[in-house]
Amino acid sequence: MDCVQHTPVPFFRKACRILLVSLVASLSLATTASAGKYAGIVVDAKTGKVLYSEEADSLRYPASLTKMMTLYLTFEALEAGKISKNTPVPFSKNASAEQPSKLGVRAGKVITVEQAILSLVTRSANDAATALGEMLGGSEDRFARIMTNKARALGMTRTTYRNAHGLPNSAQITTARDQARLGLALRQHFPQYYGYFSTRSFQFGKQTIGNHNRLLGNVRGVDGIKTGFTNASGFNLVTSAQADGRSIVGVVLGGKSGGSRDAQMRALVAKYMPVASRRGSGNLVAETAVSPTVQAVEEVAAARGGSFNLPNKGPVPDFRYSGETTKSIEVAYAAASKPASSNPVLADVVQPDTLDAQSRKIARAAPVPSVEIDEQVTHSVDKVTTASTPAAPEGWVIQIGATPDKVQAMTLLDSAKDKGGKALRGAQPFTVAFTNGGSQLYRARFAGFSNQNKALSACKILKGKGFACWASLQ
């Protein structure tokens, strides 16, 4: 029925138009993501093998699972030394006005970063999530773009963020598979902070705030991660469990109730934990694409022999681009619009039936959801060819930059070796040649780290000396 045509009074005709626009928007929303429909996945956290999958690549709304990415970026800033657990997090009027669940902090007041973290993993505080996003990104909108960039970097090819908390937004979408990747990444990349997700309660003023995750302490092996709920999403849960040398990450999206969601996750843990492998490195989620908001700028700054420092106060990150820096980024990295099928990151060989393999298959087959992603770049994978050693070293390595010239890369390594002290004693400097966009580049790396902790420790020291640095398993 055309209510506009059959409504004589102008005021009601205008109201009819608004109603029609709303209906069209609702229909569009329904085609974007399936509201409240079940999706699930269980991944062996040591091998990456997908043990169970149902609608794992169908678009869903993350709700408060969003806060997992907010926390990922918070942990990243902590690990980089840009903030500390005691850094004050100011609450703007925007943050203070968020809908519950919330801490109820007034505008103009502050809490610490650690209090914000604890409030996110227990109460799932929306006001604290917004405050963290505004502090880390300068604004919540900018932080959401950084979140989306990071999702792409982690291989979450079908996830888009629009806010830091997960309150309803029709453009904020994800999949069960993507959330499993994020859960694995949190465990793998930040073992020093992952323990926050097992917090049963914490004291905030006179309040004792309990964790929304009812499986903690009630299901053997469960050590986190996060719950979520909106009317559109249904009841969501990402769960990590470790017992008897086995480890899994499970995701349930679109539960009909909190009880049925928890019961489904209990059943998944009970069924698939015993068949998970006791072998495997557990190093499953590498950042196969990077953004200038995090690593590309660091590489360029390091390659130019300069340092990359964020301000101790104010928004983090807060990069100051120069024309020369921007040009260097454009030369060193491929554009974000490069088709997935031609991206070597998605074309290299991985083990079949793993989360990584299936994620890449989805990335090739399905377009990334329509979203504006600021300054995203795609990183080429290393080739086997190395520029200074006969074969690529095995084990944990750290990378401190990439340059268009081998001599510059070695100079950068020499400088880092001098300043790294004991952290790099016995470390082997080498370069890795790779081609990106037709240009030959050389990655500057150190090998010889026997485990992840030693590699991360070396990176922490180098970052304190002004170098960019990140660790990976070769």
From TrEMBL:
SUPFAM superfamilies: beta-lactamase/transpeptidase-like, Sporulation related repeat. PANTHER family: D-ALANYL-D-ALANINE CARBOXYPEPTIDASE, TRAFFICKING PROTEIN PARTICLE COMPLEX SUBUNIT 12. It comes from Pararhizobium antarcticum. Keywords: Carboxypeptidase, Cell shape, Cell wall biogenesis/degradation, Hydrolase, Peptidoglycan synthesis, Protease, Signal. Residues 390-474 form the SPOR domain. GO terms for biological process: cell wall organization; peptidoglycan biosynthetic process; proteolysis; regulation of cell shape. The active site is at residues 64, 67, 124. GO terms for molecular function: peptidoglycan binding; serine-type D-Ala-D-Ala carboxypeptidase activity. Residues 1-35 form the signal peptide. This is D-alanyl-D-alanine carboxypeptidase. Substrate binds at residue 226. Belongs to the peptidase S11 family. It holds the Pfam family Peptidase_S11. InterPro entries: Beta-lactam/transpept-like (IPR012338), Peptidase_S11 (IPR018044), Peptidase_S11_N (IPR001967), SPOR-like_dom (IPR007730), SPOR-like_sf (IPR036680).
